[in-house]
Amino acid sequence: MITQIYQKYPELKTIIAQLTRIAGVRVLLVGGAVRDILLGETALKDLDLEVYGLTVAQLETELRKFGTVILVGQAFGVLRLAHLNVDWSLPRSDSVGRKPIVQVDPNLNFHAAFRRRDLTINAMGVDLATGELIDLYGGQQDLKHKILRAVDPELFGEDPLRFFRVMSLMGRFEFQPDLVLNNLCKTMDLTKISRERIEQEFQKLFLKSQRPSLGIRWLQTIGRLEEILPELYNTVGVPQNIKWHPEGDVFEHTMQALDAVIYDLAGDSNNNLQSLEITNINSVNKNNFIDNFVSSAELRVLLCWAAICHDLGKAVTTKLIDGLYRSFGHEVAGVELSKKLLKRITEQKDLLKIVPKLVLYHMRPGQYVTQKVRASTYKKLALQLAPDASLLLLAQLAWADRAGRNGDGSQIPLKTVDQEILDFMARARELEIISKPELPVLTGQDLLALNLATAGPELGKLLARAYDIQITQGITDKAVLLQKLAK
Question: What residue numbers bound the domain in which 81 lies?
């Protein structure tokens, strides 16, 4: 294990050797990195090292021999070398209470130091001089049996953010909380957690999970979904037409669609949009079809929220008509519901603007193909989505919607890409509007130069009319379009 660490951070070996020459000093790798190494993960970053036997001042003196030292958290005794992405800290204990007193103690024993950690799988350490694994709370066995268990139930409940960490870890590792942890989480007071911190944990769930639905399903299992995401909770038990949705109610469909987003973006199947080269995150970003979303991580979070929100409207529109469940207008009803849900979680204006727009139009790809709409209809949709989204992004959500219909269970959907979505993408690509709308032939300068309009609302109306004529009649010649506009 330590060989793997020193291969990535070769300078650490020298620093550790220097520190451990001092009598009584031990340096442990602690926290999530130990867990990840034991799980076989190779991407190591944000290492946390705990130094026993030195005061903060002594540790700082020793580290300065290797470069500039930055004080990250004086109260917690956390230091960092400016050129090395590693946190150095001293063991500490936290008193019980809503405002715990943090006490740094270089001579604290391992039992007391590890007791303050949240889960057993995060409460292990590795001595970086000897390679010894220090596991005092059974973390390695819990990893083996895929169990999430609190190190100390009393201390666990003092930090309510740990509730959401359980949620994100469930999706990431597909582990299950034990009965004690579930009971703790059922009653934890979550009202003091800031919206920003909650949003961060949802982002971790979406970015690090292969099956993020597991974390959301857990919220429902322990009775907290209604409190945290009430609009989604209202989809539980809402029936659907079994012909189109053999998977069950709207909540089950939504969870499968959420997992399908990750399945598609991960590119793990020969049947998904990624592998068919219809979409590629890197090229999408270069095309800049979503001006304010510049990384695949942000795009992934966006699509996950869109999947969660896309059918919220069914909770208020579903009716039994002629023996069949129908949800006419659910996409329209879902717009305000998605805004309401997102405002509870985030202040990001881009998410609040783009997700409701995708919800409103998520039915269009399939409808356009079955109804064989004209090219101008595709072009108008591309314009309606711009500049925030594109037909490409809409197709990704539509694919997740179609893939999330697995009647055999709640596993990751393995359904092949729906031919209608492929046809929609092919048509958008043929019309050269897959990533952005068709550029207008006429500009404001053209109209002003010919004295066809004056600057202001009149110009805007005339430009909109010119663009409508352009895409409706397929005009690409400026002179022809001016002639049409004059008529």
Answer: 2-146
Q: 375 and 464: one domain? A: no
What is the distance between the alpha carbons of residues 131 and 2, in angstroms, rounded to a whole number? 6
Q: Facing residues of 272 across strands?
A: none
Contact 394/382 with Cβ under 8 angstroms?
no
pLDDT attached to residue 171: 93
Q: Which of 13-27, 177-191, 255-269, 407-421 has the lowest mean pLDDT?
A: 407-421
Residue 53's nearest CA partner among 30, 79, 27, 18 is 27
For residue 89, CA distances in Å to 24, 72, 112, 119, 270 come to 16, 10, 15, 19, 46
284 belongs to a structural domain: yes
Residues 20, 93 within the same domain:
yes
Q: Whole-model pTM above 0.85?
A: yes
> Which helix (H) or strand (E) covers residue 28, if one does?
strand 26-30
Q: Structurally, how many domains does the chain consist of?
A: 3
**Which of 288-292, 425-429, 441-445, 452-456 has the least mean pLDDT?**
288-292
Contact between 424 and 401 under an 8 Å Cβ cutoff? The reply is no
Asked whether residue 258 falls in the same domain as residue 364, the answer is yes
Phi, psi of 463 (to 5 degrees): -65, -40
Of the listed ranges 27-36, 258-267, 275-284, the one predicted with least confidence: 275-284
CATH number of the domain enclosing 26: 3.30.460.10
The phi, psi pair for 381, rounded to 5°, reads: -65, -40
Q: What would the pLDDT profile of 206-260 be if each residue is shown by its tens digit?
A: 999 989 999 999 999 999 999 999 999 999 999 999 999 999 999 999 999 999 9
Q: Is the same domain home to 456 and 344?
A: no
- Residue 157 domain-assigned (yes or no): no
Alpha carbon 155 to chain centroid, angstroms: 28
